[in-house]
Every structure is written in structure tokens, then in C-alpha cells.
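User: My instructor asked us to take a sequence, write out its structure as C-alpha cells, and then describe one feature of it. I'm not sure where to start. Here is the sequence I was given:
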Amino acid sequence: MISLLVGLATLITFVAWELWRRKASLLDVRMFRERGLAGGWITLLVVFGIQAGIAVVLFPFFQAVLGWSGLWSTLALIPVSALMMMMTSGLAATLVARIGAGSTMAPGTALGGVDLALMALIVSVDGPWMRCLIGW
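Assistant: Let's start with the prediction itself. The C-alpha cells for your sequence are:
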């Protein structure tokens, strides 16, 4: 609870500081009044926050539960970062150009939620490590 309060106080201080320094602000926080920018920012914050949290959980899972080394744990997640994300990042730009940002982000976020739910349901100590990659 204390961390949440400190984070909120820091956010409020940052916004007030940036509004006060309008001529040379680091980030013009008034831009977030635009609904599309704010929605995209919040969506990215949630999605990448969840993915970072999963990575924080998967590395200890690989090491402590499956008994892998740090190197093997890192190599196990390369299909996620190197292959899947890099190959599909160009697809997102193409879809946004064709059908719009909102029509791309909403199904993408929903699909990510379904993937994470599947990962939570089928990952087990007895199963193969590839099951961990379903939610990515």
C-alpha cells in the first residue's frame, strides 16, 4: 500500500512539474487529454506490464522448479522475444494502416488475455516447457 501511495504521489508531482515547465518540459502531459493517445498508452502499459511480470515469474520457475541454469532459462524464452515479437511487429503496423488503431488494439489485447488465461490453465511442472510460451 505504501508503494502505491508513493507511486501516486510521484506521478502527481511529475505531472505538476511538467505542467509548470511548459516551455522546456520533458513530456507535454497535456497530450494525454487526447483519448486515442491516452487509450493506447494505457493499453501498452497494461500489456507490457503483464509480460514483464510473466518474465519475472518464468525465470525463477525454470530455475527453481525445473532446475535449469540461468543460461538455459534465457535460451528458453528466445522464441518469444526474438522470433514471435520481432516477426509480428511489422504485422501490427500493416493492420493499423488497413483497419485502424482501435480495431487492431482491442482484438490484440483480448487475444493476449486469452493466451495468458490458457497459459495459467495448462502450465505445470510435469508438462513440457513449450507450454509456458502459449501466453506470449
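For the description part of your assignment, you could build on this observation: The radius of gyration is 19 Å. Try explaining in your own words what that tells you about the chain.
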